[in-house]
């Protein structure tokens, strides 16, 4: 068994995991969504009946009318897939998901008016990616810096700061901080906009648009940064400290190399695969976790979209978003697995 | 016996560590406050969403201690009461009169004036003669049958006609503050210009009731703009009370969730690492399935669909968070497995379940305790997040739901900072001791400094 069969095995595992996760979501939300759909069909049929009665102005055969309405109701039922057995719907749904065919949304539309779930998600996903990738990159940059400083100057002020900001990381909700920042910096002293992606109407021209968008990104980024930088710095610090205890660092020290050379050439090089894993997982995870941040800052990305879809019981959109987010996370895990497999000689040898 | 020394050991570890000790003390204080909240304010919990209950409280009042900075403009509510006198009684109706006298010396009028009169049968009508210090007066009456609470809004038609008499017009939006200003301003063109008359006010309330009615309670509230430790919200609900009521819920759900998910994770991860082979692969697969679910969206969907109670919500969160502990427990179990005493047990023919309970579980316990403590803040934050999105278990007061109503009532736009700041600070304050204890156990058990 070589590297290739290892990869094949991993791919199979990840696909089965994806199917299982989606099935779980489908089965758990199925009963309620079904109820909502039946209610929708009934109100639509009633509205249809009223419309016919109004149009005919009184002279209509009641039997005919009822037949018409029943036919319409049946049509609606089949268009929502309500007349099929559960297992069939489940199989169709899974097949559609896996082929990235998410179908049509029940109630939501994309900004351009399309009801395709695919188009809706594609319209909102870029904004989430822009906001949270930028945020994560800033956090990684400063987190690594602070983590390294605290590991390098053990016992100094840097060393004491990191555990404190790590405590903040695990006890501060981002949405609350965002809410507070909006109250203070957007309404108290008016230096930042309170929410949205751009001003309304958005400025014309690419440059003006980007600058306006960055201005709107400032507050959410600040909230995201304050909450997350401590956690990342803590991880880096523990990582660097654990590597410092390894033999090759001792050897380097014995050779009389300078501290900074050991840190950058030896320790950081060894730590970089682990750091890159952290980075991949952090970015992939931030998309799903940004739901409340997006709601508070009225940032119309997938998190905001998820919330709206949930409020409107739009199952195809909910399933589609969860599928996309899960795929992103699995891809990050998978790439991480490939790198690990590539770096770890035992896996390469097929042990 | 072994367990006892184990617990003693952890307690010692926590007590020796400064941050652990502070954390423990904070938790004891929180638990004491929770017990106080549950025993003393259980009835308030049921009234939290009942608007009438909070009628007499000042609305959007800032914290009371703010009045020390500016006592002339920031002040608490004044409550007056008097002895009702029966003016006239016949077989058809009774007339009562209530006389209130008070001195007003602040720079701004009260935010609202509320007459609370509770009678044994409903009142027929209520008429108020409001005499200002300079002798000018206003007659106020309600347009409909009076309820037990009569505030300025319900008297607004008579105040509005008074306004138009004095200044010639009625402002387009009439707020309680504006109505109050016309009761406290100088009569004439400058009624609403912000200056107020200071001195002795006399208020005469005349009530007509059906015969044999008794006035049970009477109160005149001159509403302030400051209340309690943390102020009040738009409905007059005190934030400090809301925070106190939210504390037991936060602790309960945080601890419950963390304990369930850590125990579940440690057992699953422990067994998986202990047994190895096919079982290990299968359990790993299950762990991965739960791990890759986008936790927050998934949780929001489930809470929205199921509308869980507190216990079910804890189970849901635990269901999504155990894989993190399972992964760590698994690798811990794998490293224990390679130790010599496990080999020795095998050679001696001791059944594997006994090896598991005598060697693995005790070694996984410190790990479990540390992660239980560390898991509490995450669970609390998740619950408050769901509450903030409007997904609060029915009948519970949570900090997230207080913040949710702050957002939907535009607290940020209106500058009601106390409504946003304090509930959120409590989330942090409750999390900190658990993180501190978790870190100190982690440090003691897994080395470090």
Rg over C-alpha atoms of chain A, rounded to the nearest angstrom: 27 Å
Mean pLDDT of chain B: 85
Report the structural category of chain B.
Answer: alpha+beta
What's the helical proportion of residues of chain B? 55-70%
The major beta sheet of chain B can be summarized as: 5 strands, antiparallel
Largest interchain contact? A-B, 51 and 43 residues
Gap from first CA to last CA of chain A = 8 Å
SSE inventory with pairings:
The complex is a heterodimer of chains A (351) and B (449).
Chain A (H helix, E strand, L loop, with lengths): L2 H54 L5 H18 L6 H13 L18 H36 L4 H15 L2 H15 L17 H39 L2 H8 L4 H31 L1 H6 L5 H10 L3 H29 L1 H4 L3
Helix pairs in contact in A: 1-2, 1-12, 4-5, 4-7, 4-9, 4-12, 5-7, 6-7, 7-9, 8-9, 9-12, 11-12
Chain B lengths: L1 H15 L1 H23 L1 H6 L30 E3 L4 E5 L4 E11 L7 E8 L3 E9 L5 E5 L7 E2 L5 H12 L8 H9 L14 E11 L5 E9 L15 H37 L1 H16 L2 H12 L3 H28 L2 H9 L3 H37 L10 H10 L2 H4 L2 H30 L3
Antiparallel strand pairs in B: 1-9, 2-3, 3-8, 4-7, 4-9, 5-6, 5-8
Description:
With 351 residues, chain A is mostly helical. Chain A is built from 13 helices and no strands. In chain A, helix 4 (117-152) runs antiparallel to helix 5 (157-171). Chain B is α+β, with helices and mostly antiparallel strands. In chain B, strands 2-3-8-5-6 form a 5-stranded antiparallel sheet. In chain B, strands 1-9-4-7 form a 4-stranded antiparallel sheet. In chain B, strand 2 and strand 3 (94-104) form a beta hairpin.
